[in-house]
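[recover] target loaded
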């Protein structure tokens, strides 16, 4: 009979179990008492956190029908694990994923109609769901809105978000209504601890009278304690959680003329970034960052550009890269999502979605027949008793 592996060596092996399957460690703990003892050791759990600093992409939520009947779909990133099965979610429209939770916001009466919105928060790992009460009074126009979900401790800090997916959370609902003074954008915050919504915070009669929330599906970006939502034209809506303040910021000025989608996203060192696809001189993924100039003014700086043909499998890109929407030519290749806290960006074309890891430059197809794709990430490590 071969000798047993030493505990230290066995621990090194267990540390390298695939992080995109949160139940893998739990299954390993059921193998025998010795494995369970190693996995329950605080030293092992600390080292696991040190090695796997970025959250794992556990799966993807995509909108497969943005009209009645609505439908979103969950697709696991690692189907071979058998832990999470793909499933359709009829009647739900995914809006955001963060800190182990997914948020769905669905117009009750259908698109382009006034009426209540249906808010549901779902944990794909546990299948636990919570229906939120609609904000009261309901906004008179529900076609221009966005929403985000996040851990309640985000505004005050003190949480590393590695195991808070079952704790208190907040949902931030940002919407635009039309008044005689122009567009008015407001934000309301739901707290799971009070089961109620805050009073609205609004930008009233601001100089950007033509700015409103972009009605197309697009997840928010969280940088520090500030959420960013894509707005109309070349603007974005900024909501500071701690100060409960709304404001409007510029996006890079010439991005608005390219016809493709821009995605706001967090970069390293708590910097707001933006990703877009450029056609010339070659089809490239271009990154921008919002930085402070020497005179203290926030401005956008163009970063690296990465040729998509170098990142994607051979012949994956469509030969026809421009499409006519009836009034203008637009790009047929777009950014369709990103995984917060990682270097992963999702690129979509011809109804295919590829996940691209910017640092390793690896890519793989993860979704098809999409309208919007939101990665579901998790730090979740199951609680294991020794």
């Amino acid at each position: 009979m071969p000798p047993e592996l030493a505990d230290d060596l066995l621990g090194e092996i267990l540390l390298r179990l695939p992080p995109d399957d949160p139940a893998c460690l739990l299954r390993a703990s059921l193998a025998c008492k010795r494995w369970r003892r190693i996995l329950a050791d605080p030293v092992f759990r600390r080292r696991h956190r040190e090695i796997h600093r970025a959250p794992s992409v556990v799966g993807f939520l995509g909108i497969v029908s943005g009209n009645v009947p609505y439908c979103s779909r969950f697709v696991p990133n690692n189907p071979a694990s058998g832990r999470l099965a793909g499933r359709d979610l009829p009647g739900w429209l995914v809006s955001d994923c963060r800190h182990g939770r997914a948020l769905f916001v669905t117009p009750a009466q259908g698109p382009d109609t006034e009426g209540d919105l249906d808010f549901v928060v779902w944990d794909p790992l546990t299948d636990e769901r919570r229906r939120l009460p609609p904000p009261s009074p309901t906004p008179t126009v529900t076609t221009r809105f966005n929403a985000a979900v996040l851990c309640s401790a985000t505004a005050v800090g003190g949480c590393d978000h590695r195991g808070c997916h079952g704790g208190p959370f907040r949902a931030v609902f940002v919407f635009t209504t039309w008044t005689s003074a122009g567009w008015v954008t407001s934000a309301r915050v739901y707290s799971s601890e009070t089961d109620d919504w805050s009073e609205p915070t609004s930008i009233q009669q601001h100089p950007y009278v033509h700015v409103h929330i972009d009605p197309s599906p697009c997840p928010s970006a969280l940088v520090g304690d500030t959420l960013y939502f894509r707005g109309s034209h070349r603007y974005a809506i900024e909501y500071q959680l701690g100060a409960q303040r709304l404001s409007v910021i510029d996006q890079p000025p010439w991005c608005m003329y390219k016809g493709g989608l821009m995605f706001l996203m967090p970069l390293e060192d708590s910097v707001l970034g933006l990703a877009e696809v450029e056609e010339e001189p070659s089809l490239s993924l271009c990154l921008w960052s919002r930085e402070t100039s020497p005179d203290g003014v926030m401005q956008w700086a163009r970063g690296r550009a990465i040729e998509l043909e170098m990142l994607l499998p051979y012949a994956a890109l469509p030969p026809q890269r421009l499409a006519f929407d009836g009034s203008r030519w637009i790009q047929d290749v777009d950014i369709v999502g990103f995984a917060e806290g990682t270097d992963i960006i999702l690129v979509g074309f011809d109804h295919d979605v590829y996940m691209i890891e910017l640092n390793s430059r690896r890519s793989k197809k993860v979704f098809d027949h999409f309208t919007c794709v939101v990665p579901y990430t998790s730090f979740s490590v199951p609680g294991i008793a020794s």
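[recover] notes: Residues 1-53 form one domain.
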